[in-house]
């Protein structure tokens, strides 16, 4: 058998999963990267938490390949992709083609944050573009949010739900058992580089108390060297970080320093 370090990263994870009882045919399937295997990223992310997910909104889009390589070299375990429609939020970023382009450039899990009105209309398209986790805003869904989460799961993706800082945490409490991930926004969705709103900390603490241990809690917006530790102490598993990484010339050093600051003090 080939040594694991001679295999591409995604095959290594499939082989490892198989030794833990993942169906062996998945190894031989050309679609092993797709379908149910996408949900298996969730357990790994949970195991490795706290994890820093770069928000590529702030990356250099004229050099996506180089940016992805630099992030992989820095040891990043997943990427956070912000989709904005100029309607639910005032800003416009990118849609399915850019998600698909990242999919071609990396085997890292893609965590897609949809800041769009009626996200249920586009779930399948983002799945086809290669999203591994799809998160929708509860304020933006046009149908029952539980149905949207179920649809995301049925496609084999991780299902996330989120709310803006001014929306009370009660609006996502009904989903603690059905969502794979709850994203707590610590800025108003729409732009990178905003100031962290501490209301997110109370929400994280409340969700950590009532949610099952397997529920992934993610925080997004204004997370930096000053705010990251409060987030992990409040129970965040996934730390979405844009400017505090991309404003630095050495992503690896920036991420290492953020990890050190994120350590929960005992
Ligand atoms: C804001 C986005 C964030 C943002 C984070 O609407 O969801 O992911 O890019 O960027 P920073 O870390 O700069 O606040
Ligand atoms: Zn985001």
Automatic annotation (TrEMBL):
It catalyses: D-ribulose 5-phosphate = D-xylulose 5-phosphate. The active site is at 82 (proton acceptor), 220 (proton donor). GO terms for cellular component: cytoplasm. Its EC number is 5.1.3.1. It is an enzyme of class 5 (isomerase). Binds 1 divalent metal cation per subunit. A divalent metal cation binds at residues 80, 82, 113, 220. It comes from the Bacteria. Keywords: Carbohydrate metabolism, Cobalt, Isomerase, Manganese, Metal-binding, Zinc. Pathway: Carbohydrate degradation. GO terms for biological process: pentose catabolic process; pentose-phosphate shunt. InterPro entries: Aldolase_TIM, Ribul_P_3_epim, Ribul_P_3_epim-like, RibuloseP-bd_barrel. Substrate binds at residues 55, 113, 190-193, 220-222, 242-243. Belongs to the ribulose-phosphate 3-epimerase family. NCBIfam families: PRK05581.1-4 (NF004076), rpe (TIGR01163). Catalyzes the reversible epimerization of D-ribulose 5-phosphate to D-xylulose 5-phosphate. This is Ribulose-phosphate 3-epimerase. It comes from Bremerella volcania.
């Amino acid at each position: 058998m080939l040594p694991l370090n001679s295999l591409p990263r995604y095959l290594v994870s499939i082989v490892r999963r198989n030794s833990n009882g993942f169906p062996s045919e998945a190894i031989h399937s050309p679609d092993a990267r797709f379908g149910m295997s996408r949900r298996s990223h969730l357990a790994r992310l949970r195991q490795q938490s706290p994890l820093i997910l770069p928000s590529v909104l702030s990356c250099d889009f004229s050099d996506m390949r180089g940016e992805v390589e630099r992030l992989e070299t820095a040891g990043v375990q997943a990427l956070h992709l912000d989709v904005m429609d100029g309607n639910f939020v005032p800003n416009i970023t990118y849609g399915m083609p850019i998600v698909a382009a990242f999919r071609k450039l990396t085997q890292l899990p893609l965590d897609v944050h949809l800041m769009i009105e009626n996200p249920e209309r586009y779930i399948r398209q983002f799945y086809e573009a290669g999203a591994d986790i799809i998160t929708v805003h509860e304020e933006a869904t046009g149908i029952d949010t539980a149905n949207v989460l179920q649809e995301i799961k049925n496609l084999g993706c991780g299902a996330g739900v989120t709310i803006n800082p001014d929306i009370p945490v009660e609006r996502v409490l009904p989903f603690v058992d059905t969502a794979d991930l709850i994203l707590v926004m610590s800025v108003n969705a729409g732009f990178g580089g905003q100031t962290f709103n501490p209301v997110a900390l109370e929400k994280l603490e409340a969700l950590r108390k009532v949610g099952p241990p397997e529920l992934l809690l993610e925080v997004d917006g204004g997370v930096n060297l000053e705010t990251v530790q409060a987030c992990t102490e409040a129970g965040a598993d996934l730390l979405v970080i844009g400017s505090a990484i991309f404003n630095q010339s050495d992503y690896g050093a920036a991420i290492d320093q953020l990890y050190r600051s994120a350590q929960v003090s005992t």
